[in-house]
Structures are given as structure tokens and as C-alpha cells.
Amino acid sequence: MTVLALDIGATKIAVGLVGADGMTHEVGRIQVPPTGVWEAVRGLLLAAANGSEVDLVGIGSCGPVDAPAGITTPLNIPEWRDGFALVPAVQELFPGATVRFAIDGVCLALAERHFGAARETPDALAMTVSSGIGGGVIVGGMVAVGHTGNAGHIGHMIVPGSTDPCACGGVGCVEAVASGPSSVRWARERGWHGTTGIELAADAEAGDRVAKAALRRAGIALGQVISSAAALLDVDLVVIGGGFAQSGEPLWRPLQEALGAHARIDFLRDLHVVPSELGDQATLVGAGLLTAFAPAS
After folding, report:
1. What is the pLDDT at residue 26?
2. Which CATH number does the domain housing residue 74 bear?
3. CB 153 within 8 A of CB 135
4. Cα 44 to the chain's mean position, in Å?
5. pLDDT at 294
6. Is residue 295 in a domain?
7. CB under 8 Å, gap of 24 or more: what pairs does 78-87 form?
8. Most buried residue, 18, 75, 76, 164, by most Cβ within 10 Å?
9. How many structural domains comprise the chain?
């Protein structure tokens, strides 16, 4: 039996083979192309299948999504922003396969619950902080989905006082303030000359004033929305993955400072925010787990 997992992120597409133990092992990865995204996904899937009959496919995609319809409308993939029928396309590619689909935050939460930092707790919030900001909610040991499949999408919680425009059409979303591209844009508007979140983090570590300010701004915003989400959900653990989350002390220290200022109510006194244990494999692992575990509806 061949079981595939597919992770479609804002900047990369990865595919893996799911083992009998439920763990996914990556076998292919490419950058998201500016056009021809489905053709690129199709090629990766066929290469991973290697001519064998595919029985199950688990898909995690950046969103928003319409999970019941199998449609993804990712804000950060322009070609698909108006909607792409991803599940029907995969079903046409592998006619005999069962296809299960979720937003990437749900997959992240599922992976951290079964193989990562949330193994020991039944209630947690998982987040990805990268080109976008997303998340998934674990309640009573189950991963919540919501009626459209977008439960836990913390990237569109509002940062107090922010009026930054967001790609979703709103203003003040934490994704518009604290994602990698948003932080890079803010720094460049103030004279910093780099182009990537990796460069921004390195310059902040080296003491660049603008880079440090950009990461401090992002960290405070993340801490504020995490405090709000933790109070709403009554969780004591938040797991953060994603490339920009690996920016080190210049991001994590202000995040913790903001938690100290805002997460003050008694039931949040044991709130812990920790890095993902699965790194950039988390969404792919969670997509594989969709083939074995059904999130709560």
C-alpha cells in the first residue's frame, strides 16, 4: 500500500511517503513556482508514487481553505488566490485513492500532538511563523477544524493598535505585522538593505539597529496575540514552528516579554511557549497523519 503526504506552503512544496508507523519521510521538495503550481505539484506526486498504485493521500495546504469542497485559496500563492480545486485534481491523478485534506495549521497541530512538543498535553495551540502565520488548536487531545476547515488561523487575529494592511483585506492582522516578509518590508522602509528573513535575523543578532527593531516589533505582536488566544482557549502550551520563528533571541525575548505583560490571569500562569520539535517537516508529517487520524469536526 502506497500512502503519500503533500505539504503546500507559501514558498515550498514537499511530498513524502507515509510509513506504517504514521511517520512521513520526505522524498521531494521544490520552491513554489510563480506559475504552473499544479503542474509542479503533479510532477512531485507522480515521482513519489514511482508507478505504484496510490491508496491514500494526505494534503496540508496554506490557506484559507474550503476543506469540505477540497478547495484552497492561499493568500500567498497568487495563481491560486481565487481558489484551486486541489482535492479533485489529486483524485483525478490517482483515481483509486482516498484523499484527505486540511489547512497547514491543522496538520502542524496534528503532528505536534502525535510526534512533537504537544505529546504530553491534551490542550495546546500550534503556530507557524514564516511567510505567513497560521495555527491549529488541540482540544481534549483532538485537533479542531471548524466548519470551513480554518479553525486556529491565528494569523488574522488583530495586533492592538496596528493598522498595517493585510493581504486578506483587513488591517492589523498579526500576519501583516510579524511574518517574515512583513518584517522585512518594515525594515526596508526604514533603511535596512537586506531582502530575506534569514538576513534580517542575522543582522539583528549582529546588532543592526533596524533589524533588531523589526524583530522586536514582530516578537511583541506575537506575544500579544498568543496571550489573547491562550486566554480564549485555556491552553498552557503554545508550540511555534516555521522558518521565521527560528530568528533566535531578538524575536523570542520580546515575545516572552509581551507574554509577561499580557498573560497575567491566574489560569495562564503556567503558559509555556516552545519551538516545534519537528521543524520544517511538521506540516508534511501532519499531512501524513491525516490518512490515519481524523481531526475533530
Report:
1. 94
2. 3.30.420.40
3. yes
4. 21
5. 60
6. no
7. 78/34, 79/34, 79/35, 79/36, 79/37, 80/37, 84/37, 84/38, 86/8, 86/59, 86/61, 87/59
8. 18
9. 2
Q: Please tell me the predicted confidence (pLDDT) of residue 62.
A: 94
Residue with cell 496534528: 110
169 lies in the same domain as 94: no
Angle between helices 209-233 and 180-188 (to 10 degrees): 140
Residue 122 sits in the same domain as residue 53: no
Domain of residue 261, residue span: 117-276
Same domain, 51 and 188: no
131 in Cβ contact with 9 (< 8 Å): yes
pLDDT score of 1: 80
C-alpha 97, offset from chain centre: 26
Is 158 in the same domain as 13? no
Cβ-based neighbour number of residue 176 at 10 Å: 26
Using CA atoms, how far apart are residues 182 and 247, in angstroms rounded to an integer?
Answer: 14
User: pTM here?
Assistant: 0.92
Averages of pLDDT over each 10 residues, the chain, 297 residues: 94 95 94 96 97 96 96 95 97 96 96 95 95 95 94 96 95 97 98 97 98 98 98 96 94 97 94 94 96 69
